[in-house]
Specification:
It is built from 14 helices and 14 strands. The protein has 416 residues and is α/β, with parallel strands linked by helices. Helix 1 packs antiparallel against helix 6 and helix 5 crosses helix 10.
Length: 416
């Protein structure tokens, strides 16, 4: 066999490790574990992508805006690294609707989806000895990227018995002089919670007390369908500076368009004074940009989409969250402690002691994929062992079918 050592490549274990804890890495492994002889259609209650289902098809206004932008032949070239001005202005106006102050286009930076916004935010605060506070359970891309960049992260718990509120005492205990920020995900992924105005204000006051930045992941912004309305963290930007991460993908059901943003909610100018804004621009200068013709379509998409579209999505989500919550009650080994109020997910507790031959949540999900062609994600991927994250933004009939498979699987493996 030819000796390949001369090529000088050594595998980067940090990349492999980071990839292994991402949702895509876990999801791909689960999909590979399906039984190829099972002729039933695979039901995926795992990935936050409702676009595959006709009931969640995006508005024609958005589709037409993209087509018109592309056919104009005006947006086939590179965009500025921060994004084109009309798109940034439109997003600033859109987000300002819910704020007590007005954002400027200069406060908005366009990214390749919300994941690049996460990368940029963590890159900006990464320095020797720094640490960042992350929620548990949370979105594992934060851990994956921080770990790859060797940025220390520390977990504060979300309290399931209190509607997944932040354990603020834990936040204060974890922080030290090297803590640069804390991450808040609202509406919650993976928990499906929506924080109240009062709780978010307490979070921001805690951040002010500790002298840290709030990084607010609001990619599921406005996807709330219970008693708590969505409250953007930027409302409290005068208490402590807030970096808001968001995207077009979830509210308009177009994750494949990869259009996100990072926004400085900072009416007191702290982020400019301490050069965070300059660092964001520097990071964007060495990274890719969102597709230019999609950027150009943003003003029409935001300005012309009617409330009817959004209301229809919310109605379906409310129905599906109710179906999930009610059906879980009929499965002995599963408990949903808090009915989902927003985003597309619920966290469900798994009691392995009631099962005959299933050890934990990971074992549960792999055997479920193999036996039922049903894909859900283990809570371990989000920092909570023996929990499951179930996505419900699917056609109601598909959700019902999937939950029937889930119940049959649990009954089959229950202790006799």
């Amino acid at each position: 066999m030819e000796n390949h050592k001369k090529w000088g490549f050594i595998a980067n274990n940090e990349i492999d490790s980071a990839s292994g804890i991402t949702l895509r890495g876990v999801l791909n492994s689960l999909m590979d574990s399906r039984n190829p002889e099972d002729e039933r259609q695979t039901i995926t209650l795992a990935h936050g992508d409702p676009s595959a289902f006709p009931c969640f098809r995006t508005t024609q206004i958005a589709e037409d805006a993209i087509v018109d932008s592309l056919r104009s032949a005006k947006f086939n070239g590179y965009s500025p690294t921060v994004g084109i001005l009309p798109a940034r202005r439109s997003i600033a106006d859109y987000l300002s609707r819910d704020l007590p102050y007005k954002l400027s286009p200069d406060d908005v930076f366009l990214t390749i989806g919300c994941e690049q916004a996460i990368e940029i935010a963590l890159m900006v605060f990464n320095r020797p000895g720094a640490n960042i506070l992350l929620p548990r359970p949370g979105y594992p891309y934060f851990e994956a990227y921080a770990g790859f960049r060797q940025l220390e992260y520390r977990h504060f718990d979300l309290l399931s018995e209190k509607g997944w509120e932040v354990d603020l005492e834990a936040v204060e205990a974890l922080a030290d002089e090297n803590t640069v920020g804390m991450v808040i995900i609202n509406p919650g992924n993976p928990c499906g919670n929506v924080y109240t105005y009062e709780h978010l204000k307490k979070v921001t006051e805690t951040a002010k007390k500790l002298g840290i930045i709030v990084i607010a992941d609001e990619v599921y912004g406005h996807l709330s369908f219970a008693s708590n309305p969505f409250v953007p963290m930027g409302i409290f930007g005068s208490i402590a500076p807030v970096l808001t991460l968001g995207s077009l993908s979830k509210r308009w059901a177009v994750p494949g368009w990869r259009l996100g943003w990072l926004v400085a909610n900072d009416p007191n100018g702290v982020l400019k004074e301490i050069k965070v804004v300059d660092s964001i621009i520097s990071c964007l200068n060495i990274s890719g940009d969102p597709v230019t013709f999609i950027q150009a379509a943003i003003p029409l998409i935001i300005e012309k989409t009617t409330d009817d579209f959004f209301n229809n999505v919310i109605t379906i989500m409310r129905k599906c969250s109710g179906i999930l919550y009610d059906r879980i009650k009929d499965i002995d080994c599963l408990t949903c402690p808090h009915k989902p109020e927003g985003s597309m997910f619920a966290m469900v507790k798994f009691n392995s002691t009631l099962m005959e031959d299933i050890n934990d949540d990971t074992d549960f999900c792999f055997k479920l994929a193999k036996e039922e062609s049903l894909i859900i994600l283990p809570g371990t991927a989000f920092g909570l062992k023996n929990w499951l994250r179930i996505m419900f933004a699917v056609e109601p009939t598909s959700l019902q079918d999937g939950l029937l498979r889930l119940k049959a699987f649990c009954q089959r493996h229950a202790k006799k």
